[in-house]
Design a protein that fits this description.
With 241 residues, the protein is mainly alpha-helical. The chain has nine helices and three strands; from the N terminus they run H-H-H-H-H-H-H-E-H-H-E-E. Among the domains are: 99 residues, no CATH class; 61 residues, Structural maintenance of chromosome 1. Chain E (Arc Repressor Mutant, subunit A, Orthogonal Bundle). Helices cover 56% and strands 5% of the residues. The chain has a three-stranded antiparallel beta sheet with strand order 1-3-2. A hairpin with a 2-residue loop joins strand 2 and strand 3. Helix 1 packs across helix 4. One of its GO terms (biological process) is chromosome segregation. It comes from Solibaculum mannosilyticum. Keywords: Chromosome partition.
Length: 241
Amino acid sequence: MVKLSYKLPVFEGPLDLLLHLIAKHKLNINDIPIAQLLDQYMEHIEAMQQADLDVASEFMEMAARLVYIKTASLLPRPEESEQLKRELTGQLLEYQAVQEAAAQLGEKARQSGGFDLAERPALELPIDQTYRRQHSPGVLREHYLLAAGRGKRKVPPPAEAFSGIVSRKIVSVSSRVVFVLRRLWGGKRMPMDDLIGASRSRSEMVATFLAILELIRSKRIAVEESGENMVLKADGDGRWK
């Protein structure tokens, strides 16, 4: 009796074999029935062993992985099983995408006569502007205040900010000269601190001091030292002789 023999397809790894079984039996790759897939996988491993093919350790490792996922799914809380299934599905989808890309590159190489030249038109990639980072409320508040502060610095200052400069009354030195002479008219004597202290604003104070200096320079008033105070005096017509 002639023994029938057949050639098994060669797979590059356990993921390649799983994708073959999923496609062959039309299984849903996004919701893999682990029990059914495990049975088909073990049947193929046994067929490889019967055909005297060396089964790599990575195929046996995948078999153990499928058995563990099936066992975890039988527990009262199958959350771990679902997590393991999602990880396996992700690996299968990535491997499937790599296979499709390799097939496209192989087709282009066949058309161009080799891998020396490969080209493709430029693709317009969509820009994903979704912000996915997470921040604590304190960090958000801090950066909001910094941003708000930068915005305020770019805004022109309000008119009130200049009120102390542009709206302040300008006091001339000549007006304070008249003020000092009137206080010292007729030979009166007055402490310099009293003259300067009678000023209602800083501008008047500075103008009064400059007026006193100008009157001293022009010798219209004189300065005498009386203890710790400086006393100013003038003659009857406002000119010191």
